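Notebook entry, structure prediction.
Reason for the run: the old model in the group folder had no record of what sequence produced it. Starting over properly, with the input documented here first.
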Amino acid sequence: MSHETVFLAGGCYWGLEDLLSKIPGVVNTSVGFSGGHVKNVGYREVSTGTTGHAETVKVVFETHHLSFLDLLLQFFKMHDPTTLNQQGNDIGSQYRSAIFATTQEQILLAEDLIKKIDLSGVLKNKITTEVNNFWAFFPAEEAHQKYLEKYPDGYTCHYIRNVNLAA
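New structure, fully documented this time:
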């Protein structure tokens, strides 16, 4: 089996991880922080909005069950990729939409998909999702891992939007 990893940020990582983990073909998820300038950070530091990190979900998926493009299409339905540094009531750069790609192919596919969705006009506004090379992931504290499994009534602003996106 061939596995691939990508790091996705789209607001509060609790809800995003919960939805991503339920996609057939996703074999593992964990939450943490990527995209910033401070090493070895935790939730308390990132929540200040000063580290440059985004709340991020590490996603490992089986490429023979789930293509990278199909994963991204679902990711774009789980959050609003057109709001800059905000998802629901969560505001700040730590809640931005970002793809931290682990391969050059992921970068090219993500950038192409974003262009296609923007040109289609299916979304009211242009996608603000950043596409960056992955460089580091700092796992969040254990209490934050699989948070909505531990606390089913916990906070989330994520849900599957009824938007017809196509690659």
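Summary: The domain at 3-150 is CATH 3.30.1060.10 (Peptide Methionine Sulfoxide Reductase; Chain A).
The old model has been moved to the deprecated folder.
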